[in-house]
Specification:
69% of the residues lie in helices and 5% in strands. The chain is mostly helical. It has two domains: 102 residues, Arc Repressor Mutant, subunit A, CATH 1.10.10; 48 residues. It has a two-stranded antiparallel sheet with strand order 1-2. The chain is globular and about 50 Å long.
Length: 190
């Protein structure tokens, strides 16, 4: 009897085409990873969530980053990241300074206590990542990383093109509206 893919938590593909299910699989993996890290942190008595861990790790790798940049990297809303940053600041794990390039933004960095908390979290996170990748060989892990990087690069390249085309779209729409408005005013009886 065939194994039910839903029983393992894998989402059902949106169609018979394999590429349609990839987005769902990535979302499912992300959700499972977050959940596994949250559970493992609680079990080890590390009092932080995946979002707090992601913020601390982001500040470790990019000290002085703004909250908005950190939110984008952690894939959460700016409001969510703001809440996370305020809690971490209250707990003395991070500190805020004026951003050198923007009067409206803050620059965030880890405190010594924050670095210690991150180290505890990384130990737990590393165990979860090791468990996740245990089913893959070293070559498969390297291939997976390469495939994911190429997918990201393709989307970022396309996003740059869309932004450029999107910047022109309002002008084209405005011209169309003006043309339509001009035609309709000419058609109106006097």
């Amino acid at each position: 009897m065939a194994k039910n893919p839903q029983a393992s938590g894998a989402p059902r593909a949106a169609s018979d085409k394999p590429d349609h299910g990839i987005g769902l699989l990535l979302k499912s993996l992300h959700h499972s990873l977050r959940q596994s890290v949250d559970v493992a942190l609680r079990q080890e008595g590390v009092e932080m969530s995946f979002a707090h861990f992601a913020a601390l790790f982001g500040l470790h790798t990019e000290p002085g980053i703004t909250g908005a940049q950190l939110a984008r990297r952690a894939m959460v809303s700016a409001q969510t990241m703001n809440s996370v940053l305020r809690r971490l600041e209250r707990e003395g794990l991070i500190e805020r300074r004026p951003h050198p390039e923007s009067r409206r933004a803050d620059s965030w960095s880890l405190t010594e206590q924050g670095s210690e908390q991150l180290a505890r979290g990384r130990t737990v996170g590393d165990a979860v990542f090791a468990r996740m990748l245990a089913a893959l060989s070293a070559a498969e892990v390297a291939s997976l990383q390469s495939y994911l990087r190429r997918c990201i690069a393709a989307l970022e390249s396309a996003a740059g093109t869309e932004r450029t085309e999107g910047a022109r779209a309002p002008t084209q729409r405005r011209r169309h509206k003006q043309r339509v408005a001009g035609e309709s005013s000419r058609r109106r009886p006097a």
